[in-house]
UniProtKB/TrEMBL annotation:
Coiled coil: none annotated. SUPFAM superfamilies: EreA/ChaN-like. Pfam families: Erythro_esteras. InterPro entries: Emycin_Estase, Hydrolase/PRTase-associated, UCP036794_erythomycin. It comes from the Archaea. This is Erythromycin esterase family protein. It comes from Haloarchaeobius amylolyticus.
Length: 445
């Protein structure tokens, strides 16, 4: 057991009472969007604001994240939103919100193409209403000043391969033919990345050289291409995704923990490419799970050899240019599944484990609130390691004890939003008719 695990495994009642008192002393009620003023003022000048969530299936996490994002875009001129989603799917959302030529006509049309499991993460009413808001917001801006929406993730191996060939067909048919020939290495796997990974367990012949060669050739030939800047950036990113995805699935097949690190390093590389693409003064917002957003060094992840986006961005940019904002809940309902690729369900989230951070915040008022960790004293009781709930896309409420990450909360986040009782997300496939979905943004975005 690591030191953080051991110290977080139990808490004396007196320590919990001290932590409750500290939350009460610096916490702020969160009742409406105006209550976000403190977060906007404190973090609006940062280069990156990373907004986490304790699950991918909680409506309130998506709603408060969207409200904070909208205010940062409107009031602090943030340039793009980058999410824990596939580059290829999210680029279609980017085309829609920017009104690019031949873009999808509606946000719903975009999200209904998100078919990788768990598609409820993005194909839901909460995200749809944000995309529609962003599309309207962008109509009032010059074309070169429109806010983008992008995917950071590494899973879209075959989709990205296809996108590279499609781009080259338009600008360099000979290079397209070479890329198509190189990518024949993947043909035996039927455009199924999981099948590619499984095959590597038995036959260690990889397609590593092919994807790297295509990326290199694309980058070398770019100056000669007559193409739009965004079109080339998209193609180059897809080539990069293909290279890193092949490495990710290869390491996963070997059972290496480094596959996690490959994924998060790729997400940070993509984030930095976006910031460079938008220009030196641009600023970006990240949406991802707390396990990617909160600094891994403040958890037991570091002892297990894992890093994450929050840690890397803090190290690369410095704490003063980065804001890490976590979110958690005490109880409620959530969309998740009982196993990988299983149908989604609405599941009950039981009251948080005694002594956890979620339990502390509930004891501190039993209502929605947030705190900025710099407002805490250096000797705050909240700096004692505690369990911090993390709900995955696979979730078993009856095994709740395994859903807590040992955490030093003030070191993990710059701010933490606690939503005491939350409700399940509203996936499009489950709620095809908007009539049966509640008013998600009664105050607007």
């Amino acid at each position: 057991m690591t030191e953080i695990q051991d110290r977080a495994s139990w808490r004396e009642p007196t320590e919990t009472e001290a932590a409750v008192a500290d939350v009460r002393s610096v916490g702020h009620d969160l009742d409406n969007p105006d209550d976000l003023d403190r977060l906007v003022d404190r973090f609006g000048d940062r280069t990156y604001v990373l907004i986490g969530e304790a699950s991918h299936g909680t409506s309130e996490f998506y709603r408060w994240r969207s409200r904070l994002t909208a205010r940062l875009i409107q009031e602090r001129d943030f340039s793009f939103v980058a999410v824990e989603g596939d580059w290829t799917d999210c680029y279609e959302a980017n085309r829609y919100v920017k009104g690019l030529p031949e873009s999808p006509e509606t946000g719903r049309e975009v999200l209904e193409t998100f078919d990788r499991w768990p598609n409820w993460m993005w194909a839901n009413w909460e995200v749809l209403e944000f995309l529609d808001w962003l599309e309207v917001h962008n109509q009032l801006r010059d074309e070169d000043d429109r806010v983008g929406f992008y995917g950071l993730d590494v899973y879209s191996l075959f989709e990205s391969l296809e996108a590279v060939v499609d781009y080259l067909e338009d600008v360099d048919p000979d290079a397209a033919a070479e890329a198509r020939e190189a990518y024949r290495c993947f043909e035996p796997y039927g455009e199924d990345a999981q099948e590619y990974a499984q095959a590597l367990r038995m036959v260690p012949e990889t397609c590593e050289d092919e994807v790297l060669e295509t990326l290199t050739q694309l980058q070398e030939a770019a100056p000669a291409y007559d193409h739009g800047r965004d079109d080339y950036f998209n193609a180059e990113q897809n080539a990069l995704v293909a290279k890193n995805a092949e490495q990710y699935y290869r390491e996963m097949a070997r059972g290496n923990t480094d596959s996690w690190n490959i994924r998060d390093r790729h997400m940070v590389e993509t984030l930095e490419r976006l910031q460079s693409h938008y220009g030196p003064d641009s600023k970006g917002i990240v949406w991802a799970h707390n396990t990617h957003v909160g600094d891994a060094r403040a958890t037991d992840m570091e002892q297990r050899g894992r890093l994450n986006i929050g840690q890397l961005v803090r190290q690369h940019e410095g704490p003063s240019d980065t804001a890490l904002i976590g979110m958690g809940t005490y109880r409620g309902t959530v969309i998740a599944a009982e196993s990988w690729n299983a149908p989604m369900e609405e599941l009950t989230v039981p009251p948080a484990r005694q002594g956890s951070y979620e339990h502390v915040f509930d004891r501190a008022g039993g209502h929605d609130q947030f705190l900025v960790t710099d407002d805490l004293d250096d000797d705050t009781a909240l700096s004692q390691p505690r369990g911090h709930r993390a709900i995955g896309v696979v979730y078993h409420p009856d095994r709740e004890s395994g859903n807590y990450v040992p955490t030093v909360l003030p070191d993990r986040y710059d701010a933490f939003i606690h939503l005491d009782e939350t409700s399940a997300l509203h996936p499009l496939v489950q709620h095809a008719d908007r009539t049966h979905v509640p008013d998600l943004y009664p105050w607007g975005l």
